Amino acid sequence: MRFRFWFLLLIAGISFHCKKDEQPANEGPQLWPSGVVSGKITDEHGQLLTKAVVTASGNGTTATMQAANGKYLFDSLASGRYTLVVKREGYIETTASVDVGRDTVAQDFVLKAGTAYFNVLFDTLLIAHPFAVPYTVKIASNTRWVVSSGQSWITPSKAEGSGDDSVIVRVAASTEDTTREGMVVLQAGSFIKKIVVKQLANVMLKQLLPVPGNTVAKTSDSVALIFNQPVKIKSITPHYTYCSSGISSSYAGNKVTFSYGCAALGGDYQFTIVTENSLGDQYTFNDKVAFYEHAIDITGSIKNYFVNDADNSYWVITDHPNAMYKVDMTSFEVLHKYDLPGEPAMFTINPYNNKIYLAYNRSAKLYVLNQNGTTEQVIDITRDASRHLSEYYGPYIYPRALTFTKSGKGMIWLGDSYSDAYYWFIDATDNHRIWYEELAGSSVLYNEGKVNHDQTKLILSGYGRDATITTFDPQQMKMSTFQPGSSYEGRFIARSRKNDYVFSALLYSQLVANPVTGYLSQKTNFDNRFNGNADFCYQPGKEQNVYYADDGIVQVVDYATRTTPVILDAISYLKGTTATLDGKHLIFNRHDGNYNARLIQVPAAWFNY
Length: 609
Description:
Pfam families: BACON, CarboxypepD_reg. The chain has about 600 residues and is mainly β.
C-alpha cells in the first residue's frame, strides 16, 4: 500500500509540471503559423445579417469571405495585425483592427442602415519640422475607422475610433541628415485616406569649399557652401572686419556660392552664416573656410627648406624654437620632428648616403645625422687661407649652404661672422674632405647651388649683377657657363626636377633656359626686386610652365607661349614654392615675423587652365 501511495503521488507531480500548454524549459518559443478570427454581423436590432462581405488585410495578404448566415471565420491567418472591413448593401460599412496570434480572436460587428461617409480634414502631404511637433488630423465620419503608421517616429494618438473625432499625429525629432518619409493611413471600410509625412532634417552645413578667383579671367574669389538640403541665406557676416568687400550669393540646389574678394591663397576666413529651411526654421553657423587643402602650423621662424624626391618629403628648419620637420608631400603629415640643441644655420640631405647635414649658427662644425635624427659624425671646419681672401673679422669656417650630388661630391659655402659666404668643394666619399681649387670657367662667387634633375651636377646662379648660369660636374671637376640673355642682375634660379630646364629669375626679366641644349624661351618682365620663388609644373605637356610666387600672388607662366593664364591672390611672404612630381599639389612655407609659421598644401588643379 505504501509503495502504491508514493507511485500515485509521483504521477500527480508529473502531471502538474507538464501541462499541455507549457513548453519544456530547453525549447525555444512556440511558433504559431496561423490564427483564427471569427465573429458575427448584426444590425442595430441584433438580427444576424446575411450576405455581408468581410475582408481581412494585413501582412501583405488579403482574404475575403461572405458571411452567409451572419457569421464569419478566418481560420488560417498568419500572425500579425489585420484590418477587417465589413460591407453589406444598404448598410454603412465599418472597420476594425485585430491582432492575430495563437488564440482565437473574436470580433463582432454591428451595421447601421444608411450610406457611409469618411472625410479626413487634412492635406494628403505633411511637411514636418525637424523637431518634435504634434499635428492634429480631424475626421468627419459616421462609422468606425482605424489609424496606422508603419514608422516608429510617427505615432498616432489612437489606433481606432468612430464618428467625428480627431487624431494627434506626433512626429519625433529627426536625427537624420536627409529628409525622411513615412505615412499615416486612416481607413473606414473601403474608404482609405493616406497622409504622406515628409520630415525635414535639421539644416547641416556639410562643407565650406574655397573657390579661388583668377585675376586674368576676371573672376573673384568665392566660397561654396554645401548644405544637406536647399536653404535660404538670411545673412553672411565675415569676421575679418577690415575687409569691405561686398557679398553676393547664388543658389543651385543644396549649394550656395557667395563672393568674397578679400580671400587669398593660403589664408583661412571665419564667417557667421544665418539660414532658413523651407518652413522658416532658422539656423546659425560659425565656421571657417580654408583657401588651401592642408596646413601645418608650427611655432618659430623658418630658416630654410629642402625637397627630397627620393622619399617624397618636404623639410624645414626653424629657430625659436630650434627644430627640423619632415613632412610627407602627399598626405601632408609631419613624419618626424627633430628638436635641435642650437639655432640652425643650414641643412641638406646628401643623396649619396641619405644622411642629414646640419650646421648651427656661428659654429665651425658640420653635423651628420641619420634619418632618426641621431648624430653619427661631427666634422670640424678648419681655416683654409688657400684662396687668399680678405678675412674681415675672422676665418671662413661657418657653413652657410651645402649641396651634394649623388656621387657624394658637392660644394659648401663658408663664411665668417659678418661677411658673405664663399664656396669650397666637399667630398663625402673621402672623409668629407673640404678643399678649394681654381677651375676654368669658375667665378669668385655664386649666389646658390642646386642639384640638377638626375643629381649628377650642380646648377649655380651668379652673384650680384652676374646673371650667368654655371653647371658644375664634380666627376670631372669642370665648370661650364651659360648666359641666359642680357641682364644686369641675376636674382635666383629654379631647376626642373624632371629635365634640364632652368628658370632664370633676373631682376626685371625672367625666362626658361636649357644650358645643355642652349635653348632660351621668350622673356617675361616681372618686377623681381622682392626675390620671388618658383618651381616648374610637372603635369604632362606643361614642361615650360612655371609657378611663380611673389609679392602676394602666385601665378602660372607658360614660357612656351609667353602667356600668364592664371594669377591667384595669395597671402604675403610665401616661400619654398614646390610642385609635387605627380603634378597634383603645390607646397609653400611662410612665417609672419612673430614666430608663427605655416606649411601650406594647395591643389594644383586650382591653377589649371
